[in-house]
């Protein structure tokens, strides 16, 4: 069994990845990046980075035998560069203006990528930290919707990661993202705690726009388990601890 399935990422889709502190989904974001670059040498992957650094992206990719350092298909946008410290901001510079700058920059890069006929992939690695940094829920909700609309217009796939702090009480940003997503990929810690053989588990749920199909669905009762490795992760059926890919 392969995860993610090659056709999970396709144009017009928003894949929402949620994780928790005991089971961060960094490995899955990098996996999407590497698989996309390997599947096509000309398909662009644009990372909107909030918590990931360019150097870490290069390091993790190198361990997975993927060269992003000299790959023109890989585009890295440091989101926090658009959020100058309060004392350095000009009069009237607000968070929504910073988000608009990021949107405009992404729009230009996606427009440039449409000439080769390949599906570009956009990864927003950490929308939650923007809220923690003071961006309002209203601005973030509008930004997420604008990104989704832009990626649909540009025939791109969009992956967004959101951190869950209180699993029993979904926050308002998560509720908004769930209404936008095509699939919700849930990275969860084991109820019994992390072990040497199993790092956590992955479930895949349908979003509102995929009501009529069970394609790619992995329920919590049949969750796919994984074990982190130095370069990526090994996935296996629940309860087997036997790597399948």
TrEMBL record:
Pfam families, from UniProt? ELP6
GO terms for biological process, alphabetical: tRNA wobble uridine modification
Q: Which domain of life is it from?
A: Eukaryota
Checking InterPro entries in the record gives: ELP6, P-loop_NTPase
**The protein's annotated pathway:** tRNA modification; 5-methoxycarbonylmethyl-2-thiouridine-tRNA biosynthesis
GO CC term (a single one) = elongator holoenzyme complex
What protein family does this chain belong to?
Answer: Belongs to the ELP6 family.
**Protein name, please?**
Elongator complex protein 5
Q: Look up and give the organism this protein is from.
A: Suillus placidus
